[in-house]
Amino acid sequence: MPRPRLALVPGEPAGVGPELCVRAACRQWDADLVAIGDAATLRRAAAAIDLPLVLVDAEATDVPPGTLRLIEFPHARLPEFGEPAPDNARSIVDGLLHAAAGCRQGRFDGMVTGPVHKAAINAGGIAYSGTTELLAEDAGCDVVMMLANPTLRVALATTHLPLRAVPDAITTPLLERVLQILDHALREDFGITAPAIAVLGLNPHAGENGHLGHEEDAIIAPLLSRLRGTGMTLDGPLPADTAFLPARLAGIDAVLAMYHDQGLPVLKYSGFESAVNLTLGLPYPRVAVDHGTALDLAGSGRADPSSLFAAIAQCTALARQRMRRSQGMAQ
Asked: How many angstroms separate the CA atoms of 174 and 218, rounded?
C-alpha cells in the first residue's frame, strides 16, 4: 500500500501554526506531508525557533527530516509575530480550499490544519465561521465535529452556539443526522464493527423525568429507541455529570454531547496536549489541532507541538483505513 499523502495547512501566519509545521518537518512520518502556505512565513518560523528547513517541490520524493514539500500560497504580507494581518485572509482561505480540492480530487489522502484566526479573516472581508463550516460548504455535505485524545472521543450535536440558542437547535432531524454520521465514521474510518455511542441529555440529570426539562422525553429518548431498531448501539440519554465516569464509559467508543461546553471540558482535562479535532462526514479525512493560534507564544519556540503531531498521526491512520477499504472494494 502506498504512503498516504497529506496536505498540511499551517493556518494563521502570525500564530504558532507555521513553527509547529516546521517541527513536524523535522520528524519522520508514515505519510508524505505537503505544506500549503507561504514560504517566507515558514522560513521565518524555522529561523525563530532555530531549526533547519529546506522547502522543496510538492512532487519531490525521498524527503529527509528537515525538508518540507510546499505548494506556495503567498500571503499579502509577512505579519509580525502575534499580530494577524487581515489582508492575508484571502491567501489563508484559498490555501484551505486548495487542500480540500486536492483531497476531493484524489491528489491528497487527507488534510491536517493548523489554527486559524477567525476575527482576522472576517476583518479581511471574508465571512468565516470556522474551517469546519468552510469545508462542509465546499464539499456540500453535513458534518459532525468530534474531538479525540487517546482515551476519549466526544462528538458535538451543536458547536459554537450561545447557550440560550441550544435547546431550540436540538431537534429530531438534527440528532438523527449527527448520530448517523458519527456511527458511520466509527465503523468506516475507525474500523469499529459495532460502535457503542453514549448520548448525553440536554438538561441536568437528563431532565429528571421531565422535572428539569422535556427535551429528553420528547426528542432524545424516542429517537434513540427508534435508531436502536436500525442496529445502532446507543446508551442514553445520560446525565452529563456522571456519564464520563470510567465505569460508565467502559465499552463506549464515543460520547455525543448536546453542546460545546458540555463535553469538551472533560475531554481537554483528560488530555489536552494530545487532543485533536476531527471533521466527520467529509469525503476525506480532516484532522486539526485542538488549540488556537496562541499569538502570545508565536516565534518564541515555546509552543507545544503535541496536538499537531497527534493530528498528523490520526490523519495518517484514517487515510490508511480509507485506502484499505477502497482496495477491498476494488477486489
From this structure: 14
